[in-house]
Specification:
Blueprint (H helix, E strand, L loop, with lengths): L8 E7 L7 H12 L3 E7 L5 H11 L3 E4 L3 H8 L2 E2 L1 H6 L4 E5 L2 E5 L2 H13 L7 E5 L3 H12 L4 E5 L3 H14 L4 E4 L5 H6 L3 E4 L23 E4 L8 H8 L3 E3 L2 H16 L5 H13 L2
Parallel strand pairs: 1-2, 1-3, 4-6, 7-8, 7-10, 8-9, 10-11, 11-12
Antiparallel strand pairs: 3-5, 5-6
Helix pairs in contact: 1-11, 5-6, 5-10, 6-7, 10-11
Amino acid sequence: MHSVSGHTKPFAVLGHPIGHSLSPVMHNASFEALGLDAIYLAFDVHPDRLMPVLSAMRDMGFQGVNLTVPLKEVACSELPSLDASARLLGAVNTVVFADDGLVGHNTDGFGFLKAMEESFGPSIAGESVFVLGTGGAGRAVALVCAQHGADRIALSDVDESRAERVATEIRAAYPAVTLHVASPDDQIDACRTANVVVQSTPVGMKEADASLLGPDAFCTGQKVFDLIYMYPETAFLRTAREAGADTANGLGMLLHQGARAFTLWTGKEPSITGMRSALEKAVYGK
C-alpha cells in the first residue's frame, strides 16, 4: 500500500463486531490498482453511537462509509435521507457524504443481480425462484427478485412466520408476482420446481455443515446460488452440481456490492479484477 499523508482520502466500514469484514481488502486493492491516494479502514462502532460517529466522520473528511451488522437497520431508521434501494430493502450498507447531508444506500441487491448475471445470464425476469432462508439477506434477495420481474417466488424458513411476513410484504409491493410459502416438508418440491435457487441461511458457514437439501431437490439446468462465500463450494452447491445444476457461491455478490459502493463514493469505476483477486487471496488463499 502507498504511504499515507495529510492528503490521503479516508473511507471505512463500521460494524459491531468488525473483525470479519473483507471490505478493507477489496477496496484498498482497488485504490492501489487505480493509483488513488485513499485508504479504507474498519472500526467497531456500537449501534447506540452510530449517528454521532457518522457525523464526526463527515466533519473529519471521510469520503464514504460502509455499514455491516448490526448497523444496517439502525441507519435505515435514523438517517435523514435514503436512496430508493435502502427504502426497498429496509437497510443501509453504504453511506454517501453528499453536499446536503448523509444519504443511505443499499448495494446488496445490485451485488446479487450482478453476480447472478455474471454466473448465469442477464436477467431474473420471468424466472421461478426458490429462496431458502428469509432473514435479512434472504428477504433482500426475494424483494429484489420481485422488483426485477421474477414470475414466481417460493419462500421457506425454519421460522415459517418470518417467511409469511416476507411474502406479505412482496404481495403488497408487487402483486403480479405469484408467492408461495413452503413448509419444511414442502422444501424439496419447491426447490425442484424452481429455475433459480438461492440458499441464504447461515448453514454452510462451517466447512463440516451438511447440505440442507438432498440431490432429489435439484435437477439439470437449474441455477443455484449460495450466498455463503467462505469456501469455493459449500455442501449445498456440491449436492446441486452433482445433480446437474449450474452453481455459484456468494463471493461475486460481495464483490459487486462493494464495487457499486466504490462508484457511489468516487464517481469512478473500480478495479473489478484487483478487487476479485484480493478477495480470492483472502478467502481461498489463491
